[in-house]
């Protein structure tokens, strides 16, 4: 059997894929190496569709003989494994960030006499272009909700950033930088009680009505596609939490984080400068169980946030609570700290991981902000949340402009600091 190998992601199937399959068929039986979520995750945005859904689509395309997983961005290990007689690829990798993959693929093929066939890239279709069209179409609550679990499974660490309104969420949705040929971007949004409250000029004391928080998230969802984790403070009364879990899940929120405090909640970063009471372990476990029982699908995650280190209760208390919450079936643990270094959260993770090697761990490095994401990942964290940075960056800029206008009696001096009208139009689809 003569074989021809093609590596593909097939998120949005288009005629470019069909062209390449037809070409490969001229050489042999077509093996599609379908890139897994983790093969893609480090290099570009996670595909909209799961591996299983993408597999179902591609294996039903005529001309495809076999679909196998390609677990890496690089082709070499599958070339070695399947030893195809031909490998077929578009000419888009002759230069640019994909060029090193080409060099390695050629040398792997040369080892046994496999041949590379390159065909011109189909004009007018690029996956990136398709992705922006898909963004314009939006997403569904189901697809959005599931994405957090997929990210956790696919990436060493997923990065979330606070969005307190739709325009900050649009910035978080689109921000990207190229680092070493990989596109780095935020994986999703954090709906922060602190910044949602601050944006409305209110203190972070669980005073905003949940409906106003959810309406804000709904407005964010109107114009974005990435997943969102909601800070639900203490979760409130158990019976209210059960109802709110249903609403969050239906909206397409991926996870809620509830903190083990009781009474009038104050922001954690105050620590013991204000009176804050931690919830009884058993009562909090009941809340976790009630929330889990209330949800419709297990795509929606309930994550317990431990405040022991914030309140100087010690590592022993933090671990004891973490083990109890994990035993009660929670879907993840967030350990919070207000120290300047990550030492105590690393220590927490080291001990916790001895008991629960895989339960997702979340951290919020607001005070220990020198730690790098890869260090957090190496210490067992799955999700990092930049909990307040877009709000904190917006307001100094506004204040500065307000002062300059007052000082100068006009706005000309600050014009260069402002978003141009063209940039507004670019950021907000449908403006023209
Ligand atoms: C929030 O962003 O509202 C949080 C994180 O709960 S913290 O402000 O650090 O308590
Ligand atoms: Mg909060």
TrEMBL record:
GO molecular function: hydrolase activity; metal ion binding; nucleotidyltransferase activity; phosphoenolpyruvate mutase activity
Superkingdom, natural source: Bacteria
Record SUPFAM superfamilies: Nucleotidylyl transferase, Phosphoenolpyruvate/pyruvate domain
Record carries keyword Endoplasmic reticulum: no
Stored InterPro entries: Archaeal_FAD_synthase, Cyt_trans-like, ICL/PEPM, PEnolPyrv_PMutase_core, Pyrv/PenolPyrv_kinase-like_dom, Pyrv_kinase-like_dom_sf, Rossmann-like_a/b/a_fold
RNA-binding in keyword set: no
Enzyme Commission designation: 5.4.2.9
UniProt domain Cytidyltransferase-like: residue ranges: 9-128
Any one Pfam family match given in the protein's UniProt record, by short name: CTP_transf_like
Protein name: phosphoenolpyruvate mutase
């Amino acid at each position: 059997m003569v074989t021809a190998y093609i590596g593909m992601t097939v998120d949005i199937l288009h005629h470019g894929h069909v062209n390449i399959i037809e070409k490969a068929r001229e050489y042999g039986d077509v093996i599609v190496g379908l890139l897994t979520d983790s093969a893609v995750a480090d290099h570009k945005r996670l595909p909209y569709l799961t591996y299983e859904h993408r597999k179902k689509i591609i294996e039903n395309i005529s001309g495809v003989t076999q679909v196998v997983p390609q677990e890496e961005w690089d082709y070499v290990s599958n070339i070695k494994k399947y030893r195809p007689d031909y490998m077929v690829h578009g000419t888009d990798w002759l230069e640019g960030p994909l060029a090193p993959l080409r060099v390695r693929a050629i040398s792997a093929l040369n080892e046994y006499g496999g041949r590379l066939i390159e065909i011109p890239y189909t004009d007018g279709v690029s996956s990136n272009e398709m992705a922006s069209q898909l963004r314009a179409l939006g997403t569904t609550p189901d697809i959005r909700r599931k994405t957090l679990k997929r990210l956790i499974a696919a990436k060493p660490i997923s990065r979330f950033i606070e969005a307190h309104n739709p325009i900050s969420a649009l910035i978080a949705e689109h921000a990207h930088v190229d680092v070493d040929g990989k596109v780095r971007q935020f994986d999703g949004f954090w709906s922060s009680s602190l910044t949602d409250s601050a944006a409305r000029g209110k203190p972070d004391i669980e005073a905003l009505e949940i409906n106003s928080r959810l309406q804000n998230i709904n407005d964010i969802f109107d114009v974005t596609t990435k997943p969102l984790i909601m800070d639900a403070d203490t979760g409130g009364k158990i019976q209210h939490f059960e109802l709110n879990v249903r609403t969050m899940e239906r909206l397409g929120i991926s996870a809620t984080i509830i903190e083990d405090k009781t009474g009038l909640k104050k922001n954690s970063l105050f620590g013991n400068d204000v009176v804050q009471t931690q919830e009884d372990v058993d009562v909090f476990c009941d809340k976790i169980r009630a929330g889990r029982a209330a949800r419709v699908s297990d795509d929606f995650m309930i994550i317990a946030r431990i405040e022991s280190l914030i309140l100087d209760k010690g590592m022993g208390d933090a671990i004891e609570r973490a083990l109890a919450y994990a035993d009660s079936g929670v879907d993840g643990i967030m350990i919070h700290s207000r120290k300047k270094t990550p030492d105590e959260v690393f220590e927490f993770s080291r001990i916790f991981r001895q008991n629960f090697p895989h339960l997702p761990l979340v951290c919020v490095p607001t005070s220990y902000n020198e730690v790098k994401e890869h260090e957090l990942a190496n210490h067992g964290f799955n999700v990092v949340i930049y909990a307040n940075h877009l709000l904190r960056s917006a307001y100094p800029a506004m204040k500065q402009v307000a002062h300059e206008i007052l000082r100068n009696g006009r706005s000309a001096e600050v014009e260069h600091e402002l978003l141009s009208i063209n940039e507004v139009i670019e950021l907000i689809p449908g403006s023209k």
